[in-house]
Amino acid sequence: MSRENTKFLVVDDFSTMRRIVKNLLHDLGYSNVTEADDGKTALPMLQSGNFEFLITDWNMPGMPGIDLLRAVRADAKLAKLPVLMLTAEAKREQIVTAAQAGCNGYVIKPFTAVTLKEKLDKIFDALGTPP
Amino acid sequence: MAAEERCVLQDKYGNRFEALARAYAAGQELEFEAELDELLRVRERSLFVEIGRLSRDLNAALERFTFDSRIVDLAEKDVPDARQRLAHVLTMTDEAAHRTMDLVEGACPLAERTRAAAAAIAPLWDEFRARRIEVRDFRSMLDQIDRFLAEVQVDAERIRSNLSEVLLAQGYQDLTGQIIRSVMHLVEEVEQALGNLVRLSNTGDGGGHAAPHASADAATSEDGSRRGYGPPVPGVAHGTVVTGQQDVDSLLSGLGL
Fold first, then answer.
1. 3-state DSSP assignment of residue B78
2. A64 neighbors A39 (Cβ within 8 angstroms)
3. Which among B68, B109, B175, B230 counts the fewest CB atoms within 10 Å?
4. How far is A19 from chain B (nearest CA, A)?
């Protein structure tokens, strides 16, 4: 599998942010991007959709991102799915919580295209996915 | 003793008292003791009723106290915080609008320069295609095309990068949206608190009405860390927050991520 073909799921309750992330991913060469507006919608999509990368916000009505992350790690089929948190949540203890819950990266909003690229590359490198 | 009070006493104890007196007069010890027990039971029952009433009053007073202290919290902390949050929203929307306009203003002259350069070459190109261009004009056209090709690459890249920045600048909608949503919750809570206050002042009784805010408040602190707090706002206490991506990265690398 090459990085460009990776199937992404972008989860954020604000459609503007989903569009931004989707556009940035397109600019970076990732064109297989699907959207969901909270954890509750995202989880069944992940369970049935063969997604290879999850980018999720934290603060969402319904199921927040941290719960989605925990649900993903608790699901044998999804346990290894790379998860990048993309959120405005800035408390140190939250970042520690997310790391302990098993996220692969944490990008704080507002963010830059360069930061997003760096974190994606870092995660892919760690997974050994060829560029 | 007023006739009314005597009547209540007689209703409550009269029969038992007379039976007790009869057993006493007749020297019937067993019946006397049974009536005495019964009298004591009647007395205990009214004591329990009284204790029940007192405990209900106490409960109502406690709820009213929680309610009052929440109103104080709202007035002294949450409402000023909300003002600060909205001021921050104003700043963010202002910055995002200016950033967007700066980027558009930066891109427009580049697009205009590309258009003007193409327009300058076009008549010479038409002459060339019609095979009637002068040698001198042909050389000039080649020079212009050389410059145009170099410039258009640089300018188009600047325009593309500005557009990408414009896209990112729209992230303010998410960030301010989260802040506005938290203020909306607060307004809802103030509305409830005011409603309760009106009810209290109408009835003089706080019992049972003050519960919703207390549970809402408990819910907020209970799952704040799970639900998320939204973007940090300058001047509003958030505990220890990171200052940016670098801070996040060093925190995570300390955790081995």
1. helix
2. yes
3. B109
4. 9
Size of interface A-B (CB pairs under 8 A): 109
Q: A99–B252: do the CB atoms touch at under 8 Å?
A: yes
**Using CA atoms, how far apart are residues B156 and B96, in angstroms rounded to an integer?**
23
Q: Do the Cβ atoms of A109 and B171 come within 8 Å?
A: yes
B86: pLDDT strictly greater than 50: yes
Report CA Rg, chain B: 42
Are the C-beta atoms of residues A57 and A17 closer than 8 Å to each other? yes
| Cα–Cα distances in angstroms (integers) from residue B248 to residues A17, A81, B17, B194, in the given order | 20, 22, 82, 41
What would the pLDDT profile of A8-19 be if each residue is shown by its tens digit? 999 999 999 999
Q: What's the complex ipTM?
A: 0.84
Taking 70 as the pLDDT cut, the residues of chain A under it are none
Chain B interface with A: residues with Cβ < 8 Å:
164, 167-168, 170-175, 177-178, 225-232, 238-242, 244-245, 248, 251-252, 255, 257
Kindly report the pTM of this predicted structure. 0.72
Chain B interface includes A47 (CB < 8 A): no
3-class DSSP string for chain A: CCHHHCCEEEECCCHHHHHHHHHHHHHCCCCCEEEECCHHHHHHHHHHHCCCEEEECCCCCCCCHHHHHHHHHHCCCCCCCCEEEEECCCEHHHHHHHHHHCCCEEEECCCCHHHHHHHHHHHHHHHCCCC
CA dihedral for B94, B100, B101, B106, sign (positive or negative): positive
Residue B176 has what pLDDT? 96
Inspect the interface and report whether the beta carbons of B167 and A115 lie closer than 8 Å.
Answer: no
User: B51 by DSSP, 3-state: which?
Assistant: helix
- A contacts of B177 (beta carbons < 8 Å): 14
CA angle B36, B41, B47 (to 5 degrees): 130
Please give the Cα distance from B96 to B79 (Å, whole number).
Answer: 26
